[in-house]
Amino acid sequence: MLPFFLNFNSKLNLCIMKKTSFPKDKIKILLLEGIHQSAVKMLKQHGYTNVESLPNTFAEDDLIKKIKNVHILGTRSKTKLTAKIFENAPKLLTSSCFCAGTNQVDLIAATKNGIAVFNAPFSNTRSVAELVIGHTISLMRYVPEKNKGAHEGKWLKDSKYAREVRGKYLGIVGYGHIGTQVSIMAEALGMKVIFYDIDKKLSLGNATQVDSLEELIKLSDIITLHVPGGEANKNLFNEKRLKAMKKGAFLINVCRGDVVDLVAAKKLLESKHLGGLALDVYTVEPVKKEDRFECVLQGVDNVILTPHIGGSTVEAQENIGIDVASKIINFIETGSSASCLSIPSLTLPVMNHTTRILHIHQNVPGVLSEINNTLSKNKVNILGQYLKTNNHVGYVVLDINKTNEKGIVEKLKNIKHTIRVRNLY
Q1: Which of 20, 116, 144, 176 is deepest in the core (most CB within 10 A)?
Q2: Does the annotation count 308 as an active-site position?
Q3: Is domain 1-124+313-343 classified as CATH 3.30.750.24?
Q4: Residue 197: strand, helix, or coil
Q5: Average pLDDT of the chain?
């Protein structure tokens, strides 16, 4: 085993820097979609010098060719990571998302192929919350149409519809990390904050949890959506719920594109039942900047359409780079899979004077017994053993006496139902 020799304290995570059995300069890393240089810097500070960082992404077949010899892949939200890609990436140890969401990743395929997927669900929280507050003020002051008018030479100076946000009811649907940040900021502006969540939540400040979504809709002057995607929330704000909003109320969606029925919303905006709407997410989004963007709400009065920029600030991207890079480093150097979305999550101590082996296998009965029998037959002394399973795979971390490690990795690879085995150090 090569010695533990340095601690590195980043602004977000503490990474334990440890030499690995496989030389770090041989570990090939590919980062796509212009991932922030904070990730590159952190990886290189930890000895990973074989880093290729590109501004673009690749189509499926091209990406398969590109990652043939890649050990660590980093992407953002545009790169679609399919089962075919994971099945044709024999050396890939981790494919991590330098963004909050993972809708673009086939997580089941990653799991079945023993590939660790990490993301940064909370690093852009502040940036998204600030955009919501900005949209709130802009909608209530009817900034979109006044801005458009000024660009066209029209002087739309009047106060007919414009309102202050102070004293208005802000309804937050989904009181998670972003929802709570919005709550705090809105209350500082003098807004009355109510929220609805499927779970009972401890409110911050003077925010009040309501018992139903219908109650929130009835009371709110402006509603902001912060819910996960999926069938359960598809068209959560359908025509019926949009009609139930106060006349002249406003809606903001920065979570998932399919949460709002945009055809129904357009109808209610044109009839002036809705006062305005702001979107930052869409069911179909351009893959490349030069691709044409189309939305049914283009050209509708008092509608703000932003191109999925909620987390697109320098600060958020820097934090995401550090956050995900630190998770990758911890996994590569210690085997820790804390907050992993594919293989089971394990937080591991660092063991000195041992050999650490990682074993990922199909979650079927008898594999752990076979691992232990193999070690016993080869007179291998176990100094530490950690196991976690999910529906598809089991993850075993073995700390063994380094004096009797010879050939044991190959024997573990031959155990039935084994997916991946790695001699960590």
Answers
A1: 116
A2: yes
A3: no
A4: coil
A5: 92
Q: Which of 46, 135, 241, 256 is catalytic?
A: 256
Point out the catalytic residue in the list 187, 239, 285, 370. Answer: 285
Side by side, which strands form the sheet with 393-401? Answer: 382-389, 393-401, 354-362, 418-423
Confidence class of residue 403 from pLDDT cuts 50, 70 and 90?
low
State the architecture of 351-425 in CATH terms. 2-Layer Sandwich (3.30)
Neighbours of 102 (CB within 10 A): 19
Give the max Cα distance, the chain.
86
141, 273, 308, 417: which is the annotated catalytic residue?
Answer: 308
CATH superfamily, with its number, for domain 125-305: NAD(P)-binding Rossmann-like Domain (3.40.50.720)
Confirm whether 151 is a catalytic residue.
Answer: no
pLDDT digit string (tens) for 22-35?
Answer: 899 999 999 999 99
Domain borders along the chain are: 1-124+313-343, 125-305, 351-425
Annotation says 135 is catalytic: no
